[in-house]
Design goal:
With 727 residues, this protein is α/β, with parallel strands linked by helices. Helix content is 37%, strand content 10%. It has an 8-stranded parallel barrel with strand order 6-7-8-9-10-11-12-13. α6 links the parallel β6 and β7. 53% of the residues are buried. Bound molecules: alpha-D-glucopyranuronic acid. Alpha-D-glucopyranuronic acid binds next to loops. The site of alpha-D-glucopyranuronic acid has 10 residues, from loops.
């Protein structure tokens, strides 16, 4: 070998095939192993696409990019030949029309992937009633190959179970994100529309690949400027980028906008000038964005204005806005997340108390958007009692992808397990089997509408979600919103295979780690039904002792109720009676002795020396759970260490480092919690479990003033705005 060649060879070795940093998400399309290429090459020889719509072009280019990358050879547009992939709708493609495919039941978004013969050639057809359906089918076909599933002899018809599948970005217009842990907002409003960051397109591809068909772009604690014509113009430019991907834009609307933008004296929903203002505003938006989705509204919640400021109901507030949207087909997502510092009722009961009597009073184009639990995105909550309790109302399920209360960026917690827990929850509203899935997909009460919403975890970090594994929560949310019956296990398998490698040694060890991770965080943070024990404001780290916040229900002591007798919130009939908001079989279970351990302290105040099902006292059981959580993080670290050979350096190292942080913080959670609770229990540590290394004062003094995720509410974007200058 000449010196030159040897040097070139060495250089080649030094350059990694392509650095991996997570930017490409699960759409990496890296060359597959040779055997897989040999298997799939004959099944993807060319793309045949008749018609020329933006969505069809996007589908075509995704297939070209995907096949060419995965198969390691250029695959382009072509004619019908063996192995061609023929895409389109009967309306746009004579080839598809000629096949007379059974597309009737697919609706607007469903697709059919079928292996068939066309003009004597074996082809794969991806057909739908709309170009968006074709795009979804194209992503599904790519997924078949990415996960090494059969791509021949196919006859896959697939229709989304839930019609509206939305992300809510909690992004402020100044670029900060409420509860965002992946850097600043990706929406650079200052530069829109003159510069449209290519990331918007990548985000749209990722969303479409899992079926997400709407995003609301701004924080639910809404800045009224978002409704100004200046920002609606910007939003229109973003809508143009997202439209080919089947994604509609929505806006979080501030209820008092008629005052702040319209200069009216009131935002009273019963005032005709207010109704007229909303109509004019909405008509204006639809002139700019004909397929605008609608509004998300957080009203009379955490300081936000709302109809109750005028002695009107939540339904009256929602309906005035819904009426403005209805002629355009727009939707209002009216949030049920309300609780009041003036109401001494158990916070867990307040939303139900306020909304349940309004069942049947909301317009058809209103969803009552309900968090998975009655408090606030805790590591574990029983399902919100509103599910099943408002049969005449469209209910949307809201879950949080950004892990505000689950360790935020650095804790590996695979959320689809949590999402499944609530989807599979039996409300017993119409007898056994009345799951939350059936409530929100509309089937339980025969609703035509259905929606599932995820609070976005996307930011401008290079890997989008701050941590590599948090991408799985975005991916899993979309997959479950499309089909709530998928298992968390199957989703993890898909995601790992597409995002890292399909190597069985990797997948088979990493899937159980992901599945277990949800219970692990519950164990080291809030075992046995404890909840809202997080530190003040940013919710980072433990603060079970906090008792000095302005509103009682913001204090962790409000929730843990630790005292000399025991621990936990009595929500049985002898306490706040929150149990009575559930259907009788559920209420009975939660108020009685058979309550599952995982909900025990949520619903009952339990003596420290109470005998648990395991035979331990409550105190011992608590300690055992905290320590099990820490031990399990240790196991996760070991598993991940063994995965090193299968994962590129950057993504492996970040995950390994984050797991080390997780272990440190799990220990902190355990030690701080035990140090606090032992001041009440006065019980010794169970044998084999160490005392916290420091006293309570040490943990109380730990202070993180600048933990991320909590923008400064006194800063300009949150103050009332002057008149819209562009009006
Ligand atoms: C939580 C969160 C807030 C958020 C609120 C909401 O309370 O901590 O930051 O604004 O939920 O869902 O509106």
């Amino acid at each position: 070998m000449s010196r030159f060649l040897a040097a070139a060879f060495l250089l080649l070795l030094a350059i990694p095939a392509r650095a991996e940093d997570g930017y490409d998400l699960w759409l990496r399309y890296r060359p597959m192993e040779a055997a897989a290429q040999a298997r799939y090459r004959p099944l993807a020889t060319a793309i045949v696409s008749q018609g020329n719509s933006p969505s069809l072009n996007v589908a075509k280019s995704e297939l070209i990019q995907g096949f060419s990358g995965l198969l390691g050879k250029p695959v382009g547009a072509g004619g019908v030949m063996d192995g061609a992939v023929v895409i389109g709708t009967p309306a746009g493609s004579p080839l598809i029309a000629g096949l007379q495919l059974p597309l009737g039941k697919l609706g607007r978004e469903g697709y059919l992937i079928r292996s068939t013969v066309l003009s004597g050639h074996a082809v794969t057809v991806i057909a739908a009633n709309s170009d968006i359906g074709v795009l979804y089918g194209s992503f599904a076909f790519l997924r078949q190959i990415q996960t090494r599933q059969p791509a021949d002899h196919l006859d896959l018809a697939n229709v989304p179970r839930i019609k509206l599948r939305l992300l809510n970005h909690w992004d402020n217009l100044d670029g900060t994100i409420e509860r965002g842990y992946a850097g600043h907002s990706i929406f650079d409003w200052q530069k829109i529309p003159d510069y449209m960051d290519p990331r918007y397109t990548v985000m749209a591809r990722a969303n479409a690949s899992v079926g997400i068909n709407g995003i609301s772009v701004n924080n639910v604690s809404a800045d009224v400027w978002m409704l100004s014509s200046m920002y609606i113009d910007k939003l229109a430019a973003l809508a143009d980028v997202l439209r080919p991907y089947g994604i509609r834009v929505y806006v979080a609307a501030r209820f008092s906008a008629p005052i702040e933008l319209g200069k009216l004296k009131t935002a009273d929903p019963a005032d005709p000038t207010v109704a007229a203002w909303w109509k004019k505003e909405v008509d204006g938006i639809y002139r700019r964005i004909p397929d605008f989705g609608g509004f998300v509204v957080k009203a009379n919640s955490e300081g936000q204005p709302g109809p109750r400021d005028y002695d009107r109901t939540q339904a009256e507030g929602a309906n005035v806005i819904a009426d403005a949207l209805a002629p355009h087909g727009g939707i209002v997502f009216w949030r049920a997340f309300v609780y009041s510092e003036k109401d001494p009722t158990d916070r867990a009961k307040q939303a139900y108390n306020e909304f349940k009597p309004l069942d049947g009073k909301f317009r058809d184009n209103v969803f009552v958007q309900t968090k998975n639990g009655a408090i606030d995105f805790q590591p574990r909550e029983p399902a919100h009692p509103l599910f099943g309790a408002m049969p005449k109302t469209n209910l949307a399920l809201e879950v949080q992808l950004s892990k505000e209360y689950l360790g935020q960026t650095t804790h590996l917690v695979y959320l689809p397990v949590l999402f499944k827990e609530v989807l599979d929850w039996d409300t017993f509203a119409k007898g056994k089997g009345s799951t939350v899935t059936k409530v929100i997909d509309g089937s339980l009460e025969g609703h035509d509408q259905s929606a599932m919403v995820g609070v976005s975890n996307i930011g401008e970090d290079r890997n989008w979600t701050g941590a590599q594994f948090s991408q799985a929560d975005w991916y899993g949310f979309g997959r479950l919103a499309w089909n709530p019956d998928l298992s968390a296990d199957a989703i993890a398998r898909e995601w790992l295979g597409m995002t890292f490698t399909i190597h069985p040694a990797f997948v088979n060890q990493t899937v159980p780690m992901m599945i277990a991770s949800r219970e692990v965080v519950v164990d080291y943070m809030t075992p046995l039904g404890l909840h809202h024990q997080m530190a003040t404001g940013h919710h980072f780290g433990p603060g079970p002792w906090v008792s000095d916040l302005a509103r009682p229900e913001w204090n962790p002591v409000y929730y843990n109720r630790a005292d000399a007798k025991g621990l936990g919130f009595d929500r049985t009939p002898s306490g706040s009676d929150a149990t009575s908001q559930y259907a009788p079989p559920v209420a009975k279970l939660f108020s009685g002795a058979d309550i599952p351990d995982r909900y025990l302290l949520w619903f009952q105040h339990v003596a420290w020396d109470h005998k648990m099902k395991s035979g331990h006292t409550l105190w011992d059981e608590l300690v055992v759970h905290y320590d099990a959580g820490i031990a399990a993080v240790g196991e996760m670290r070991k598993t991940w260490a063994a995965m090193k050979p299968y994962v590129d350096g950057e993504r492996w190292s970040q995950t390994a480092a984050f797991l080390a942080i997780q272990q440190k913080e799990a220990q902190w959670w355990r030690d701080a919690s035990i140090a606090y609770f032992e001041t009440f229990s006065h019980m010794p540590m169970p044998a084999g479990h160490a005392s916290p290394p420091h006293d309570l004062a040490y943990y109380e003094a730990i202070y993180f003033p600048y933990a991320p995720g909590r923008p400064d509410y006194t800063a300009a974007p949150f103050r009332n705005k002057p008149k819209d200058p562009s009006e």
